[in-house]
Structure formats: C-alpha cells, structure tokens
Amino acid sequence: MVLDFNPELTCEVWGFNKLEVNKIIKAGGLKTIYLLETDAGLFILTGLGPSLAITDVLNYVLALDYLSEQPVCVAPRIRKCVDGSLFTRMGNNLVYIVEYIQGRTLKQNPEDEYRLGQAAARLHSFDGFKIESRLRVKDTIGRAYEKFNACPCQDKYYAIIKAIPDFDRLKQGFIHTDIAPHNAIMNKDGEPILIDFDGAGRGSIYIDAGFPLITQFVRFHADGVIKFNSENAKAFYSGYQSVTKIRFWEKPLIFYGALFWQLMHMPSYIPGGKNEMFEILNFALENKKDLISVI
C-alpha cells in the first residue's frame, strides 16, 4: 500500500505548525506507518488501505479515544483532528495519529512481568466502553469441538471444552486480547504502556487475564521439554493483584481463560502428526494446581 502523504495537509488537519517524516516504520501490505517529528512532539501516523472495513478502523480509534480519557494512562493517546474527528481520509486511505511512546519493549523477566500485570489490571478496571472485542467466545468453543474430531481421546477433550464457563455472563471490562511483553513499552517514567489494540474492546476480564498463563508461561524449551515459568507467571499475577485483588473463586476462571486461548490457537489434531499444542494443553491440565497456585 502506498500512502499519498501530504505534510502540509497533515499539518492542517491535525493542527501542527511544522512536520517531517522522521522514519518510515512500515510500508507495504495493508498498512503504512510513519514516525512524525512535529512542533508538538513525536507521533505515529498510520494509514490503512481501502480493503479494511471502516468499522474496524472506527472501533480501533474509539478504543484509543476512550483510553485517552481515563485517569490512568495505559495506552498511547490519540491525537484528534482539528475538527474533533479521530481519523481522516487521504486519497483511498484512512489515517489516524497517536503519540509516540519513547522507551523500550518490556522483557520477559519478573520485574517487567510485574509491571505488565499492573497495566493489565488497570485496563480491566475500565468498564465503560461499549464496543465488544473481536473475540467471539461461543464461535471459538464451537470450532474447538471440530479440532478434536480425529483425536483418540476425543471424549476427554470434549468434557474439558464443556467445562469452560460461559464467559459472556461473567465480569466484563476493557480487554486487550494479546497482553504480552512485546505489546508493551516502558516509557521514560517507568510505566508500561500497552500497544496494538487491534482486537481490543469490551469482553471477559478472566479470558484476558488468563492469556499469558499458558500462552506465554508454558512453552517447549530447546531440550524439547515443556516447562512452566512459574517465576514470571507469579510476578505477572502479583503485579495484577497489587492493583486488583483476585478472589479465590476467580482463580479457576482465569485458568479456564487460559485454556480458552489454547483452544483458540490450536490447529486441528493430526493423527500420527506432531501436535505440540496438544502436548502443551495436556501439560497445563496435568499441572493445573501448579498453574493456579501462581495466581
């Protein structure tokens, strides 16, 4: 995708006095991203191709606008156009601008995981956003049954899927859907700022809080052995609980939220094939007590 970028028009639309492109971060595909240097500071300009649905763009900028109005900053602030709109058209492209967060990507260590857990809890405390996330819980569960169709232990896994609670009826809040160190930047004040809100919106906080429990902390290692990084996991949930207390009965819900993500990301079972995601799922089920103990 080529963005017909006009610096003078950009200044006029967003109220800058001067502007220049500092760096082209991404060019091609469905998205173009520029780092802009302006009289008001550094900003990220994103141009989206015409094949993307305008509703997806609108939901994204509305989410950032909502987060920009919260008392605690957990996301880059969107810059509104002079006329108050959240994005504009440049040729065939939809364009929006957010502040550039100067800092470093979070690392997979206890210190950064603790801060990431804090950011997740703050995000989940915002319950006024009305647009649903892209997660479709019932659709994911329906597809999970299909994935186990050729599995020798089909009945066992069907029972596990059936045990997953109806998350749509449980506590809702603003969810990110991919809370991970690579999606957070430690700013100059030492606060983690979440980025990449493509799938964000209103949804189950238990699914979102469960995202890293298996997806990040249970992995195959170089020696081919599955291991649970309990130290990082404990740090993440300790950070979360420093902001929002997780009650005893909520911990299994977070575990099932983690199972939900595993089921969502798993391919279909291949008889006689290499099914590593199934092995990770089995590891999580066999070590359920240990995983819940870190929450």
Written overview of the protein:
By secondary structure, the chain is an alpha+beta fold. It folds into two domains: 94 residues, 2-Layer Sandwich (Phosphorylase Kinase, domain 1); 184 residues, Aminoglycoside phosphotransferase (APH), C-terminal lobe (Aminoglycoside 3'-phosphotransferase, Chain: A, domain 2), CATH 3.90.1200.10. The chain is built from ten helices and 13 strands. The strands form four sheets. Strands 1, 2, 3, 4, 5 and 6 form a six-stranded antiparallel β-sheet that branches. The longest helix is centred in the N-terminal third of the chain and has 15 residues. The radius of gyration is 21 Å and the shape is globular. It starts with 6 loop residues before the first helix and ends with a helix. The mean pLDDT is 92.
Summarize the structure.
The protein is of the alpha+beta class and 295 residues long.
Reported CATH architecture of the largest domain? Alpha-Beta Complex
Unreliable parts: none
Q: Termini, distance in Å?
A: 44 Å
CATH topology of the largest domain: Aminoglycoside 3'-phosphotransferase, Chain: A, domain 2
Helicity range: 25-40%
Instruction: Name the shape in a single word.
Output: globular
Largest sheet: 6 strands, antiparallel
User: What's the name of the CATH homologous superfamily of the largest domain?
Assistant: Aminoglycoside phosphotransferase (APH), C-terminal lobe
> Beta fraction of the residues?
15-25%
Overall pLDDT metric: 92
Class of the largest domain in CATH? Alpha Beta
Radius of gyration: 21 Å
N to C succession of SSEs? HEEEHEEEEHHHEEEEHEEHHHH
Number of helices: 10
Write down how many β-strands occur, each being a DSSP E stretch of 2 or more residues.
Answer: 13
What is the total number of structural domains?
A: 2
Structural class, from helix and strand content?
alpha+beta
